[in-house]
Specification:
Shape: globular
Organism: Steroidobacter gossypii
CATH architecture of the largest domain: Up-down Bundle
Domain GST N-terminal: 8-87
Number of domains: 2
Domain GST C-terminal: 90-215
Distance between the termini: 34 Å
Radius of gyration: 18 Å
Structural class: alpha+beta
Order of helices and strands: EHEHHEEHHHHHH
CATH class of the largest domain: Mainly Alpha
Number of helices: 9
Protein name: Glutathione S-transferase family protein
Bound molecules: glutathione
Length: 217
């Protein structure tokens, strides 16, 4: 049975691959699993049919037979556990790769998203600049720590894993800010992820959705 995921009908990122379905698409491509995509509008995401799949009314979701999942990290982990290619076979190495998945989503992504939200929603507040400075510091602290740990390695812990897949998508959320570029090894790490054929296929597919939606008007 081919799994079905949900994705934005018209992504607010204009097809830059920053929406969280990109991680899931990339994971599918890495392991060679076909998948279907059901596009949803912002309105549909808040309607009962979608809320049955996703309690918070968001994308992505995953459906396969009688299994429904939400949370991009849980979905990527499920794919990685089902197929070879995203988690090492050795039990300890596998546990470490899963630690990196959590680190990406639980330690590195939160300050990045907090900064992003501040930029979108608080620009007109009188305290915005002061808060932004604090949010930038928090992001920079994480980038500096991550850069130190990555060092000259290609990936975070041995072979490319689901931990790298999630970390690269998280760092990509800083595209255009110039923050990642301050750490050449992190910029090269993101570029290595983006150069993977599986990433490129996933990126092209989500961009095609946005392009089709835009041409329809
Ligand atoms: N922690 C969730 C976050 C999901 C999320 O924030 N999805 C965004 C798209 S990237 C969304 O659906 N936003 C619309 C909304 O929250 O109304 C995950 O990783 O899946």
């Amino acid at each position: 049975m081919i799994p079905t995921i949900t994705s934005f009908e018209k992504s607010p990122d204009r097809g830059q691959g920053l929406a969280r379905d990109m991680r899931v698409r990339w994971a599918f491509e890495e392991v060679g699993q076909q998948y279907d995509v059901r596009l949803v509008s912002f309105q549909q995401m808040k309607e009962p049919a979608h809320l049955d799949l996703h309690p918070f009314g968001q994308i992505p979701t995953y459906e396969e037979g009688d299994l429904t999942l939400f949370e991009s990290g849980a979905i990527v982990l499920h794919i990685a556990q089902r197929h070879a290619g995203l988690l090492p076979k050795d039990a300890n190495a596998r546990a470490r790769a899963i630690s990196w998945m959590f680190a990406a989503l639980n330690t590195v992504e939160p300050p990045i998203v907090e900064r992003e939200m501040g930029m979108y929603f608080d620009r007109d507040k009188r305290w915005h600049q002061e808060r932004l400075a604090m949010l930038n510091d928090r992001v920079r602290a994480r980038l500096s720590e991550l850069s130190r740990r990555l060092g000259d390695n290609d990936w975070l812990d041995g072979e490319f894993s689901a931990g790298d897949l999630l970390m690269v998508t998280v760092l990509r959320r800083l595209d255009g800010s110039g923050e990642v570029e301050k750490y050449p090894n992190l910029a090269a790490y993101v570029a290595r992820g983006e150069a993977r054929p599986a990433y490129q296929r996933a990126f092209a597919d989500q961009l095609a959705v946005f392009t089709a939606a835009t041409s329809k008007g």
